[in-house]
Design a protein that fits this description.
Number of helices: 1
Largest sheet: 7 strands, parallel
Structural class: mainly beta
Number of strands: 12
Strand order of the largest sheet: 1-3-5-7-9-11-12
Helix content: under 10%
Order of helices and strands: EEEEEEEEEEEHE
Oligomer: single chain
Radius of gyration: 14 Å
Length: 155
């Protein structure tokens, strides 16, 4: 749809529910995405969006393979409703610092957060419970896992 669009800087999609595979790939000027009703982000949807720094997708349930791969400046992503994060979803997102994950999370794909420098932290909802499988998967990255009250957060 907008693939390779170099003019797009901010994406606010208030009614969109699905981001198709590759839809915004290589939108190199895109800096922020506010996607309040999106429930699925397809494979490589934002691949190579090198200016992207923040994404708010509070209703997302599934993040596809390499959806945010090669987004070197992505710092924050809010996905409190996510259930499944596929393999390589955030591969080579070297600037990633804060990853907000809610209690619905049930599956984290292999190398979902693979990157050379691990300077990020997982922030989990203190009001939710997480399966041991999910905690083990997140713990395998060797980064801090913090708990915050998501009802108090403003993204």
């Amino acid at each position: 749809a907008f693939r390779n669009n170099e003019a797009l800087e901010v994406l606010v999609a208030t009614s969109l529910q699905t981001i198709e595979d590759g839809a915004f790939a290589w939108c190199t000027s895109l800096k922020a995405a506010e996607l309040p009703k999106v429930t699925k982000v397809g494979q490589q949807a934002f691949l190579g969006c090198e200016s992207l720094t923040a994404v708010n997708i509070p209703s997302v349930e599934e993040i596809g393979e390499y959806a945010f791969g090669a987004c070197p400046n992505l710092e924050r992503i809010n996905m409190p409703s996510v259930r499944k994060i596929h393999s390589g979803a955030f591969m080579v997102a070297a600037s990633l610092r804060k990853i907000y994950l809610g209690g619905n999370l049930s599956e984290v794909g292999e190398d979902a957060f693979a990157m050379d420098e691990k300077q990020f932290e997982f922030i989990l909802d203190s009001n939710a419970s997480y399966s041991q499988e999910v905690l083990d998967a997140l713990g395998s990255y060797g980064v801090p896992i913090l708990y915050e009250d998501f009802t108090q957060l403003e993204f």
